Amino acid sequence: MGYGVSNGAAGSISLRGLSGGTARLMVLIDGHPQYAGIFGHPIADAYQSFLAERVEVLRGPASVLYGANAMGGVINIVTRKMQEDGVNTHLHAGYGSYNTLETELTNRVRKGRFSSVVSGSYNRTDGHRADMGFEQYGGYAKLGYEMTDHWNVRGDVNVTHFNASYPGPVSAPLLDGDQRITRGMTSFALENHYEKTSGGLSFFYNWGDHWINDGYTPSTGESPQDARFNSHDYMTGISLYQSTQFFMGNRITLGFDWFRYGGRAWNEYVSGEKVGTTSDLVDKQEDELATSTSDRIFALG
């Protein structure tokens, strides 16, 4: 628990030597990109175990399909759903060393064409060193409805907040290395599945608010930081694709994507002459449009 995002503590996911920390690994949730634009990498603490039914890993370059941040590979977290009619409620709780607590409560419902998943969690630990505390609050909800045998609609929302402290290296302990981070996501999708064709239209939005105190190292003569780093970033997009099999061993896919990345970062001063003032570091947004055509031919054995 508690990878953190501050200097020297950046928790990242690496694949074949390339990581999200170098903007070379894309993380998706149900096919929707999760990208903290200002930090340039996915934040591992924002992902929760109760979200995942399975995790798909694509090794190697995939930028043609997933964009510029997928040079090293792609990780897709597929969220849970009920497969059969019924109601299922699951409670998980665990306690261990360093005052570590894990809790998760999940309710799943499926009745006819309707399905839902609602989950909440609280996790915390003191860590194995001083000034290494971590706590996380998370909530997730997903609703789905199969309108016909071939068309379905679904939507979900997830919000995670965590407080973390980074103690620095053992040889030079760090004080006040604290982070307060909230990240959220929501998506909506309309999908179709036929014998020879399938596709869908989807919308997604994810965002993050971050407050970071980089802390200081007394043993090197450093003093408490004068400013706290703050940022807000977001990513939104629309994807449309349709895949058709015209004859055995062939499949053609047409697609369109629009993404918008944006964010603002600033320092808020808490001491000295600048107390109460702020200074902008980044304030920008950019749009990305893409169309794709894929013609795949499979060997028949």
Description:
The mean pLDDT is 83. The strands form three sheets. A ten-stranded antiparallel beta sheet has the order 7-8-9-10-11-12-13-14-15-16, with no helix packed on it. It is globular, with a radius of gyration of 22 Å. It has one domain: TonB-dependent receptor, beta-barrel domain (Maltoporin, Chain A), CATH 2.40.170. 1% of the residues lie in helices and 60% in strands. The chain is mainly beta and 301 residues long.
Task: List the total number of helices.
Answer: 1
Strand line-up in the sheet with most strands: 7-8-9-10-11-12-13-14-15-16
The biggest beta sheet is recorded as:
10 strands, antiparallel
- Radius of gyration, in Å, reads 22 Å
CATH class: Mainly Beta
State the domain count.
1
Rounded average pLDDT = 83
* CATH level-3 fold name: Maltoporin, Chain A
Q: State the order of secondary-structure elements, H for helix, E for strand.
A: EEEEEHEEEEEEEEEEE
- Helix content range: under 10%
Topology, please?
Layout: E1 14-15, E2 18-19, E3 25-29, E4 32-34, E5 52-59, H1 63-66, E6 73-79, E7 86-96, E8 100-111, E9 114-125, E10 134-146, E11 151-165, E12 178-193, E13 197-213, E14 227-244, E15 250-269, E16 278-297
Parallel strand pairs: 3-6
Antiparallel strand pairs: 1-2, 3-4, 5-6, 7-8, 8-9, 9-10, 10-11, 11-12, 12-13, 13-14, 14-15, 15-16
